[in-house]
Amino acid sequence: MSHFTNILKYAKPYKRYAAGHIISNVFFALFGTLSFIALKPMLDVIFDKEKTVPTQKPEYTSLEKLADFAGDYLNYQMHQFTGGDKSKALMFTIGLIVVMFLLKNLFGYLANYFLVFLRNGVIRDIRNKVYKKTIELPLSYLSDQRKGDILARVTGDVQDLQYSFLSVLELIVREPLTIIFTIIAMVYISPQLTLFVFVFIPIMGFVISKIGKSLKRKSDRVQKEQGMFLSTLEETLTGLRIIKGFSAEAKFYETFQESTSRFYHFSNKLLNRQNLASPASEFLGICMISVILWYGGNLVLNDNSNLALDGSKFLIYMGLAYNILTPAKAISRGLYNIKKGGAAAERIQEIIDTPNPLKDKPGAIIKEDFNSEIRFNNVSFKYQDEYVLKDFSLTIPKGKTVALVGQSGSGKSTVANLITRFYDVNKGEILIDGTDIKKLTTNSLRKQLGIVTQDAILFNDSIKNNLKLGNENATDTEVIEALKVANAWEFVKNLPQGINTNIGDAGNKLSGGQKQRLSIARAVLKSPPIMVLDEATSALDTESERLVQVALENMMKNRTSIVIAHRLSTIQNADEIVVLSKGEIVEKGKHAELIAKKGVYQKLVEMQSFE
After folding, report:
1. Residues 289, 229 share a domain
2. Which segments cross the bilayer (predicted)?
3. Which residue from 188, 189, 164 is spatially nearest to 64, judged by alpha carbons?
4. What are the pLDDT digits (tens) for 568-608?
5. Are residues 92 and 180 part of one domain?
6. Are 186 and 314 a contacting pair, CB within 8 Å?
């Protein structure tokens, strides 16, 4: 129930809809009960039962005699309307029943009307909360998770909440009040007969709880398996070119089929257990009705007894007893849904409650500009067990270009991940203008940085909107100027819609060099004082590399740049080249100085000259 309480917290902004829902349900339950009681005068007319009619308008005296007052008042009004004509009396009672059912269904509709806004609002807010937390969490969290599992939580699990936990909101007021009002009427008609109902209610509750005990565990298996096949689907769509190129369609299909088969079996077990709720509660309800028929029938037949019932009261009582079955079944389904939704709520809450180690500290500083230098002081970092960067110290003055080179796994890209604070250092500190970046707000830190990665990450949108990611207020003229700096305007101007051309999913309508130049243009448009270039040309052919290299040189003018390079020909003009090996600095200097040393850098250059 703790998860149910957590989910209900999201209903606070929709209190007015909740109030309308509750009030409507109160009247729905009231008129639902009165619609059965209104049958009594009609049955009296049909059974030709003589009833003493009050000659004067009855007056209300006390709450204890409310039922007698209601009956006498109804008889008085019916007599005034019909003048004792039984045919008219029958029409009057039928009209009264129609009005009661009309009011019942009107308030039922209003209750559902308010619930729509309440339920959909809560679902929207939960989905937004999960998405917001997902993009706030560090890359280290997301690298440990399957994308498909996160997709399943944002879509399937939240949807499960809508039809499990939140469907119970409909039952919280309506069904219990229907049962309470009905039982009050039943107690008034026959207290002895009503005792049998209370004997059966605990039995029904016990059986239902036994059936629903394993629903949460079964539901959790279904949701996890859904995450598995969604992950396979996401990986398939992302790597379809490779899958087809290696003729691996059958292998991926087999993996997907195995997952959906497990999902099929888990879902069958879950739904069959869930489907047992309604027939079990209905069978128990019929058992209760059977006992009432036996005992109540004897009370009607033994009309000489003090406990005797007349026929019309007994029929009304039976209708009221049956009226309990529908809300009782709904409540039993609701209890199942709470158990089923518990697994979904737990998986959603797991994301929401995950602590963010990179969250801004209280009183974090907002950095507006960059004035002097970037300094790494004895920085050590590890992703898992082994340190990939060890006692790394480096100072980068403003306006200088520093290149990081070394073999794969030497720690070059880790430096980029740390300066952008995608990860936090384990030891040491990174200072910008003498301030530890941990003391800065993450947003203001990243506003000082422009990032161009090896993989040009673009989105299924227009060229203009992709570039404006870093500068929402940029004009079309500024977008075009950025494209010119990035050496990209030459191909963009020839596209059908120019900067408004949609580039497809991940920019797949463009070549690798074109995508990279757009990512450079995006960084140019942002116009940050510090540029971080993480192997921006390593995946390109020679011609594309030349065009991109010119774009990079244009972009780096008058900026502080950290260049992580695989192709050493691209960084020969850097102010300082830092050679890394196994997470440590082994050489530093300009290109000519390092060549003269005939050390690690020269070996790297010689190796590439034969590529």
Report:
1. yes
2. 18-39, 89-111, 179-208
3. 188
4. 766 777 888 888 888 888 888 888 888 888 888 888 877 76
5. yes
6. no
